[in-house]
Design a protein that fits this description.
The chain has 409 residues and is α+β, with helices and mostly antiparallel strands. It folds into two domains: 230 residues, DD-peptidase/beta-lactamase superfamily (Beta-lactamase, 3-Layer(aba) Sandwich); 138 residues, 3-Layer(bba) Sandwich (D-tyrosyl-trna(Tyr) Deacylase, Chain: A). It contains eleven helices and 14 strands. The chain has a six-stranded mixed beta sheet, with helices on one face. A hairpin with a 4-residue loop joins strand 4 and strand 5. Helix 2 runs antiparallel to helix 6 and helix 2 packs parallel to helix 9. The radius of gyration is 23 Å and the shape is elongated.
Length: 409
């Protein structure tokens, strides 16, 4: 088990920050809006805390909360592989197609496909005379969320199947696949299982069950999305009812009428207040405690994990702050004039504080906005006695970490 900041809400509730709040030096913080509280709701600092802002990718924390509550921390996505025809054991040829029955695994990549290929080969399969038949929802690799996804659902499903077909045929690998093979430390044979047919979509396809790819636990999937602020977290949001369901659930958690969510990733025009974002943090820590899951297994920690947190806030990622701030970044460069947002949990010597800070209309001044946000968090932590970091443990899981392929015969 990782030893991480913000271990559980029951522990965070011991925070002893004064309800009277603190006085921050606001020099260099012009343009920022913020709100900070202890976990039990004592206000520490605020400025324009009830002004609706675009939370950008802080919306991913709402999606994380909904997924944790609806699916549970140990949920694993299963992708089933079936044969539509017999296997000629002598030649290793399947006289039929490979049916891929998806269940919405949002984090299936080259490495996962290669695990499937290895299992197919152990079962004597060398090639298919037929097609790759996709039964959605099946995902393969990243698209970039709603901004970059193929709009037509059928066309998108075919594209995902084509990626799988290419993954099982090394001579057709693009540069990305070859680099991933090397980076993942794989050696030995690159298993080739070619298809004579094409990729097609058939939601009614049925075949003989063969194997299932079982994903890593939901917590690890969410942490990967949040660390890199990957907009394909929308794949999880879609499984949970999309933006409307997320907006309803979030409004119930944080109160007020300012919540507006048109995506589950933070792309587009969304609205929350800084106070509501802090309420969202509190709700997430409560749900994590109930699920016996450290918040640090859902969100990245500065100085421990790669991704946008390390990229945007170098001071928080180095001593003495490293290991003391767990949270989420948000960035939009054009929408609403640009927005830089940051929210999370800071461990201080006077207890844990929940904060939300944003720079509305950052426009072309994103780097300056990030420096101002980091300045705010540093002053906030120092005003509460300084950082109280925790040790880092295991790194961010790889695409195929804690995944497996199991027989279904």
């Amino acid at each position: 088990m990782r030893s991480l900041p913000v271990v559980a809400a029951t522990l965070l509730a011991t925070a002893s920050v004064s309800a009277a709040g603190i006085a921050l030096d606001e020099t260099g913080l012009e343009g920022l809006v913020w709100h900070a509280e202890t976990l039990d709701g004592k206000v520490v600092a605020f400025r324009r805390a009830d002004e609706p802002i675009n939370p950008a990718s802080l919306v991913k924390m709402a999606t994380t909360l909904l997924a944790l509550e609806r699916l549970g921390p140990d949920h694993r996505f299963e992708t089933h592989f079936e044969l539509s025809g017999p296997l000629d054991a002598e030649t290793g040829t399947v006289r039929g197609s490979l049916i891929v029955r998806g269940a919405g695994d949002p984090d299936f990549h080259w490495e996962n496909a290669w695990l499937v290929a290895a299992e197919l080969r152990t079962r004597g399969i060398q090639r298919f005379e037929g097609d790759v038949v996709v039964v959605p929802p099946f995902w393969f690799g990243w698209e970039g969320g709603a901004e970059r996804e193929i709009v037509d659902a059928d066309e998108r499903a075919i594209a995902m199947g084509e990626r799988l077909r290419v993954a099982l045929d090394p001579p057709r690998w693009p540069k990305e696949a070859a680099e991933t093979w090397v980076r993942s430390g794989r050696g030995g044979e690159k298993i080739a299982i070619p298809f004579a047919g094409r990729v097609r979509l058939d939601a009614s396809a049925r075949g003989t069950p063969l194997v299932a790819h079982v994903s890593k636990p939901l917590t690890a999937v969410l942490r990967r999305f949040n660390a890199y602020s990957n907009n394909d977290i929308e794949r999880i949001g879609d499984l949970l009812g999309g933006p409307q369901a997320l907006a309803r659930g979030t409004s119930e958690k944080v109160g007020g009428s300012a919540v507006r969510l048109e995506t589950t990733s933070g792309l587009g025009v969304n609205r929350m207040t800084s106070r509501q974002i802090v309420a969202l943090l509190r709700a997430l820590s409560t749900a994590a405690a109930q699920a016996r899951t450290p918040v640090g297994e859902l969100l990245p920690t500065a100085g421990c994990d790669p991704g946008t947190l390390a990229q945007f806030f170098p001071r928080l990622s180095t001593a003495p702050f490293a290991g003391s701030v767990t949270g989420k970044t948000g960035s939009l460069t054009l929408t609403d004039g640009g927005i830089a947002a940051f929210a999370g949990y800071a461990q201080t010597r006077q207890g844990t504080v929940l904060f939300s800070v944003a720079y509305p209309r950052a426009g072309r001044h994103m780097a300056e906005a990030r420096r101002a946000e980091e300045r705010f968090v540093v002053r906030l932590v120092e005003s509460l006695g300084g950082p109280q970091p925790d040790a880092c443990a295991t790194g961010l899981p790889a695409a195929d970490s804690d995944t497996r392929v199991v027989a279904e015969e």
